[in-house]
Amino acid sequence: MTDGNEYTAPPPAPSGAPSDDQKTLALITHLSGIVLGFIVPLIIWLINKDQADKGFINDQAKEALNFQLTLLMVYVVGIILSIILIGALINLLAWVACIILSILAGVKSHQGEAYRYPFAIRLIK
Prior knowledge:
Layout: H1 20-36, H2 39-48, H3 55-81, H4 86-110
Helix pairs in contact: 1-2, 1-3, 1-4, 2-3, 3-4
């Protein structure tokens, strides 16, 4: 039995080389989070989740979606804490992390590597 406090590693990336179309779509999925948040990763994941031949894009869309949902929670906490002025700093740091990590994820996924964000609550498995 687990007590609920144990860290579970993300699932391994799908095996096999992704196609160029999947790599490009994964790049767009990660980079779209900078401007549009979780909307594009959600749409791409919903479109491809039942297609077995789209394992790479499905995996990367879930990863991007989980990261963007985690950032959304951080932004909400930052807005609430803006009453005591630290919220603005939290939101600024979250925004910078979003830009840097989304670009890094986009580049890695366009190279065909499955990227894992260093911090993300994995709500979609």
